[in-house]
Amino acid sequence: MTDPKLLSRLVERYYTNQATTEELEVFIDLQKKGVLDEALNDYLEGVIKEEAIQPEASFQHQPKRGQLMMIAASVSLLLLTGFLAMWALKGINEVNYVQVQTDQFKEKQIRLSDGSLVVLNRNSAFAYPEKWSGESRDVKLLSGEAYFEIKQNKKYQSFIVHTPDDFKIDVLGTEFNISSKNGQTKVYLESGKVKVERHGQKSVLKPGELAEYDKETGQITVQQANGELWLAWKNDMFFFDDATLSDIGKTLEDYYHKNVIIENESLASLRFTGKISRNNIDMVLKILSRTLNIDIMHHKDQIIMENSEKVYRHAD
């Protein structure tokens, strides 16, 4: 803002106590930068001239140059007072968030004060306010993945989840899953209704639909998805949908913290579809071995997947 008329108008609104909160913030910012110096001087000169033409006591009340400087100097005090008042008011509305973070070994359940449940996956971070305030319940999925069971609330009807890439998920009573990893946010709706929004793009999801935001294209896409695939982790299950053994190996490495070795590319391209409990690693490996007709050796921190004949030779 550099238009002299606009600057003069801003100064006038400030001194006549008509400035809005937004205008006061602009006034403080411009005054600190020295942009308002000329407009302030012009305004104060105008005030002096008006007082000087008063019929009585014009001589007695006409400010001298030193008095003018005192008036100008008082602006800084007024600005400081106004700034501190604004800061104090903002402090009243500040929300203190509780942050919860999981490591690579364990998920965590969080019961919010409204009765809603958040299940936080491994390697994830979530933040929620100590007390609800405003008109909605705002929480933040800082990273990773979380499953939400949201309770309806008469006082705070809206529940909003924010992600690091400015994705906003607005829900009522519903159950859904959010994954926010490597700049990609994915929202799967199990039941109820949610609205996803980012920078003006909006989509309303129906149960069974998956919304996905891609940071490279900047677009939100919505499609039907397999709920078992997106919710398996919450039920302590692996769910593989035509997954390659290579991808399965990475999943086992991430979950069990083992080094998975697949001896050749032909094995790595084998595909598997199925749902397996994650509780017992030996059972997982046995099911994979029998289904794919391969041999799997599990020794301490290492899992080796080979053709059957290779394993037999090692055993000799």
From TrEMBL:
Domain called Protein FecR C-terminal: residue spans: 238-304
Chain ranges passing through the membrane: 68-89
Keyword annotations from UniProtKB, A to Z: Membrane, Transmembrane, Transmembrane helix
InterPro entries linked: FecR, FecR_C, Ferrdict_sens_TM
One GO MF term attached to the UniProt entry: sigma factor antagonist activity
FecR protein domain ranges (all copies): 100-195
A Pfam family that the UniProt record links to this protein: FecR_C
PANTHER family: PERIPLASMIC SIGNAL SENSOR AND SIGMA FACTOR ACTIVATOR FECR-RELATED (PTHR30273), PROTEIN FECR (PTHR30273:SF2)
Protein's name in the database: DUF4974 domain-containing protein
